[in-house]
Amino acid sequence: MPNPVFLSGDRIDLRPIEEGDLEFLQRHVNDPRIWRAIGRSKPLNRVQERAFFDDVVCDDESIQLLIVAESTPVGTIGLHSIDWPSSRAELGYWIAPDHQQCGYGSEAAARIVAYAFDQLGLHRIAARVFAFNDPSRRLLESVGFVQEGVHRDVEFIDGEYQDAYWYGLLEDEWRSETA
């Protein structure tokens, strides 16, 4: 039986992450093309991935979804650091290397942004991207995010400090772009 879809798109669906997805998540989060881009410098074993599932995915303070294309998992996307009183959250995502440059990330980001503003009533969404990750910067900009600032030397990745660009999107900006 297929897993339930939470948000549907034209080419992708977003569904809840289930225990059966842990192998996919662990395999890809340990791929240097992924862990480097998300600023993670230590490997995750099965127990740690399970702890992520229990502590983050199953937590009510974040929304973590699996990106699925034609019933194949291709990545994850989520809203975390949700601050309900201030109506803001941070967007995070990654796409498995074999599925990058297919537009799945852009479509998933557009779907979750619409959900965040239309259903959750959020006012602001932020996202962080490392300076070396041009495809992710283009993805955010294609959805309407605006670069707001730089945190210099914020993470130590691959033997050197990396800058992180902070992006933001306000609900009224998004609504004016989608009107």
From TrEMBL:
<dbReference type="InterPro" id="IPR051908">
    <property type="entry name" value="Ribosomal_N-acetyltransferase"/>
</dbReference>
<dbReference type="GO" id="GO:0005737">
    <property type="term" value="C:cytoplasm"/>
</dbReference>
<protein>
    <submittedName>
        <fullName>GCN5-related N-acetyltransferase</fullName>
    </submittedName>
</protein>
<dbReference type="InterPro" id="IPR000182">
    <property type="entry name" value="GNAT_dom"/>
</dbReference>
<keyword id="KW-0808">Transferase</keyword>
<dbReference type="InterPro" id="IPR016181">
    <property type="entry name" value="Acyl_CoA_acyltransferase"/>
</dbReference>
<dbReference type="GO" id="GO:1990189">
    <property type="term" value="F:protein N-terminal-serine acetyltransferase activity"/>
</dbReference>
<feature type="domain" description="N-acetyltransferase">
    <location>
        <begin position="12"/>
        <end position="172"/>
    </location>
</feature>
<dbReference type="Pfam" id="PF13302">
    <property type="entry name" value="Acetyltransf_3"/>
</dbReference>
<dbReference type="GO" id="GO:0008999">
    <property type="term" value="F:protein-N-terminal-alanine acetyltransferase activity"/>
</dbReference>
